[in-house]
Design brief:
Domain ATP synthase F1 complex delta/epsilon subunit N-terminal: 4-82
GO molecular function: ATP binding; proton-transporting ATP synthase activity, rotational mechanism
Oligomer: single chain
CATH architecture of the largest domain: Sandwich
Membrane topology: Peripheral membrane protein
Low-confidence stretches: none
Structural class: alpha+beta
Protein name: ATP synthase epsilon chain
Distance between the termini: 25 Å
CATH topology of the largest domain: ATP Synthase, domain 1
Shape: elongated
Number of domains: 2
Bound molecules: adenosine-5'-triphosphate
Subunit structure: F-type ATPases have 2 components, CF(1) - the catalytic core - and CF(0) - the membrane proton channel. CF(1) has five subunits: alpha(3), beta(3), gamma(1), delta(1), epsilon(1). CF(0) has three main subunits: a, b and c.
Radius of gyration: 16 Å
Largest sheet: 8 strands, mixed
Length: 135
């Protein structure tokens, strides 16, 4: 099987690097699957999971959106934050989810606070799902 090099990079440094047979994730325009030989492109991502398949092994990385760039020999995902499933602190994500839900339920919210809380909730739920490989 052909493989392609993939790196997930954040402002804090690289989070994941490997050669994989297939990358699946959610672009803002919908589900995206990248195989070796894919045409070069750049796509903005949703808060979501990146699935990295190699043989019978599949790994998961949680990303908080960002950009995916496909070049002939390399796929790069640049995100503000990203964690492999093993690196996710599940308790922290559960607490973040609870805080975000509380903020969404509080009545006197400005729109800005509401949107911030919605994004925080999405990040937390995504981390919980990736940590549980429930995706
Ligand atoms: P929290 O409220 O728990 O900080 P957050 O969604 O506001 O969550 P981010 O701003 O997305 O956090 O991330 C800040 C940094 O903390 C990033 O480096 C991110 O990888 C890390 N991080 C956030 N939540 C977790 C988690 N549950 N497990 C491991 N690392 C995390």
């Amino acid at each position: 099987m052909k493989t392609i090099k993939v790196s997930v990079v954040t402002p804090d440094g690289p989070v994941y690097e490997s050669d994989v047979e297939m990358i699946s994730t959610k672009a803002q325009s919908g589900e995206l699957g990248i195989l070796p030989g894919h045409i070069p492109m750049v796509a903005p991502l949703q808060i979501g999971s990146v699935r990295l398949k190699n043989g019978s092994n599949t790994e998961f990385v949680a990303v908080t959106g960002g950009l995916l760039e496909v070049r002939p020999d390399q796929v790069t995902i640049l995100a503000q934050a990203a964690e492999t499933a093993e690196d996710i602190d599940l308790d922290r994500a559960m607490q973040a989810k609870q805080r975000a839900e509380q903020r969404l339920n509080e009545s006197r919210q400005t729109n800005v606070d509401f949107q911030r809380a919605e994004l925080a909730l999405k990040r937390a739920v995504n981390r919980i799902n990736v940590s549980r490989r429930d995706i």
